[in-house]
Structures are given as structure tokens and as C-alpha cells.
Amino acid sequence: MPRSPSAARAAASLLTVDEALARVLARIRPLEPVETQLLDALGGVLAEDAVAGADVPAFRNSAMDGYAVRGTDVRRAGVRLRVVGSIAAGAMPAGAVSAGEAVRIMTGAPMPEGADTVVRVEDTDNGTDTVLVERATPTGAAVRQAGEDLRRGETVIPAGTPLRPAEIGVLASIGRASVRAVRRPNVAVLSTGDELVEIAEEPGPGRIRDANRYSLSAAVRAAGCAAFELGIARDEASDLRHALGNAAFGDLVVTSGGVSVGDHDHVKPVVDAMGSMDFWSIAIRPGRPLAFGELRTKRGTVPIFGLPGNPVSALLTFELFVRPALLRMAGHTKLHRPRARATLLDRVDKPKGLRMFARGVHDADAGTVRSTGPQGSGILRSMSLANCLIDLPEDATAAETGATVAIVRTDLPEDH
């Protein structure tokens, strides 16, 4: 039977999952740093050491509302002290505190000279002219010392740190309105296939809605990157070449469909013509026909992943291969989800010679995992129900009920 000249030939051998991932990550480098407004840097990676220019806090202050006193005066309960002033947050003390005296003080207000302790207001009678200390208070209680959080000249956040809300707060406390952070990758997402229609359309006979573009774009965003949807390329080499030409503005390209060995699978030959294809078949289920290579552009080479068209295969191979690549591109050093061991509650069958990632529901408290049910590569709901992947090795033909299995915790981020 004549064969289409655009159809791909079957791969001579299959890469293991680990071999394929190593080859991907060897080709990926972090993007350049850019000056980024502080809140926009959330989720990004700091590209330079952040150094405190001053002590934080800059002065001794009260950790709570109460009375600033001398610790030697409040070692026992029942002491009455004369109230000689009041200090609000943002104000400066008018004078010092002498023996037998107290100053009303609000949380965050500077400590007056002579005072080394704050008695909580709830441990007093809340007096205004005099105050009765109803509970003994240890010296130094409720006082924040200057520089107890950050010291001038200290590196408070080193380069390479992912910026969470706490790091954003620390940067704000040292006056950083902007920081240099690794640029977030822009990812072009393209679906291929004559059978696809837009999600708002009613599919005709033999047609399906293009769910992959949405699940993959969402996965790109969940990885902290920007997704640009490029629509649907039809099963023609010329249409795919045009679409990939438009996609090359991105830092990375993700396609779905067209990577098998059928007459209408054009991704491999088109990518070979526009750049180079590294590999395109992996000993994995689901997701065996996965392509990885580079497109040549005026800006240089752009990595491209050709993911399978089956919706589970597309999203699962994104999780295992594309997500770590995007994290490295974004400057992260922790690229892999946490793993655990769990007791399997139901039998899972698999083909020998392929490493299988079954969708699972992990109960961390019980230390158990069960499959989500049918594991077909078209059953996208199996991904929706799952909070982990059950990682079954190549040489097994099944995992029996009661077996201890490895799981990938897809419900946890890489920094755990």
C-alpha cells in the first residue's frame, strides 16, 4: 500500500521515561532576568541576592498593647506603678521611664528609654493615672529588639529563591519596590487535527471539542508561565508549518496530536524541516508517541514538545516532561513533585515493557492509594479525580491489591 511521504516512520527503539526527561532537561536553560515589580514577582525566582540596607525593625518596639516598664518593677504581682505618658504606633517617646513608673504603649510603638519590658494590658487593671500589675512579668517580655528580624548588610533572600508571599513581604520590609527575577516563559499552545472544533461549537459527526488546548494552557498557567493559545492546525503539513511559524515567538511550544505514525501525523517531519527532532517515542503508558525537538527562529532555537492527542496522554506527559522543563526555564532548581509509597487498594493491570502512570487517589493519613477507575487514555475524568500518579515499573504486568507502590504527589508543589 502506498505510504504518505509526510508520515513518520516508527521509532527504532523506545527511550525510558528517565532517559527522555534527562535529554529534555539537558536542552533547557533558565531565561534571562528582568526587573519586575514586587507583586508581579510572586511565584517567580529571584535572580540576585536581596540584601538588607538597614536593621528590621529599625528600633526597639512593643510587641503588644500594654505598659512599658522596668523589668525589676514587675517581678511580682500586685505592684502599682505611676503612669507618666502614652506612646502610639508611629509616635516617639516624650521621655524616659524611671523606677516605679509606666508608660502606656501600643503595638509597634518605640520603647522609651529606661523601659525593657512590656506588661500586657490584660495583665493589668488598665489604669490611666496609675496601673495595677496583676501578674508577674519576666524582664524583656513583649519587646522586639532592633534588628531581630533582619540585620543591615545581611543577605535576607539569596538568588535562586522562589518568591512566595512571605518572601514578597520580606522584600517589602527592606524597601524593594522591584526586584530582578528570572523571566517567566511564554508558551505557545497549539492543537492539531481535522476532528477538532472549538469548545463553543456543537461537534458534528466524527468531530470532538478541543479540550487539550484548554487543559494544557491551564497546566502552563499552573506552572507560573504565560500561555498563548494558537488555535487548531488542520492535518496538512502546510497548515502546521504556518502555525508553528506563528508559534516561534514563544520561549517554548507545546502541540497536541499528530505525533504518531499515521498518514496524517505531520509533527515530526514538519519539525525536522523547521529545526530538529530529538526523540519521539517513549516506553510509557499513556503517552508513548511524544516528540521533543527545537524550532529554528530568527531569535535562535525554541524547544518544542509534540504531545499525544489523547487527552489523558497529553496532560500526563505535560506533567512528567513539559512542567519540569518550564520550571527550569523559569529559574527553579526543584523540578520534581514529591514522591511517596502507599498500599494499593485495587489491582492495576499494565503492559509489560512500558512504565505506566495510573491515575490514583492517595489517602495520606491511611497511607493508601486506589486507582480512579478505568485508565483509558481518552478518559480525561481520570485526571480530574486523581491527586497522584501511581508509578508502575516497566517489567511488571500488574500491581496487585495490597502491594506497596510508588506514587507521584501531583497535589503538592515541587518545593515541598
Structure overview:
With 416 residues, the chain is of the alpha/beta class. The chain folds into 4 domains: 17-31 and 184-329, MoaB/Mog-like domain (Molybdenum Cofactor Biosythetic Enzyme, Chain A), CATH 3.40.980.10; 37-56 and 152-182, Molybdopterin biosynthesis moea protein, domain 2 (Alpha-Beta Complex), CATH 3.90.105; 61-144, Beta Complex (Molybdopterin biosynthesis moeA protein, domain 3); 339-408, Beta-clip. The protein has 7 helices and 27 strands. It has helices spanning 17-26, 165-173, 212-222, 237-247, 267-274, 311-329, 381-385, and strands spanning 33-37, 50-51, 61-62, 66-69, 79-87, 101-105, 117-120, 130-133, 143-144, 155-157, 178-182, 186-192, 196-197, 208-209, 226-233, 252-256, 275-279, 284-285, 291-297, 300-307, 339-344, 348-349, 355-363, 368-371, 388-392, 398-399, 404-408. The strands form 8 sheets. The protein has a 6-stranded mixed beta sheet with strand order 15-12-16-20-19-17, sandwiched between helices. It has a 5-stranded mixed beta sheet with strand order 7-4-6-5-8, with no helix packed on it. A 5-stranded mixed beta barrel has the order 21-24-23-25-27.
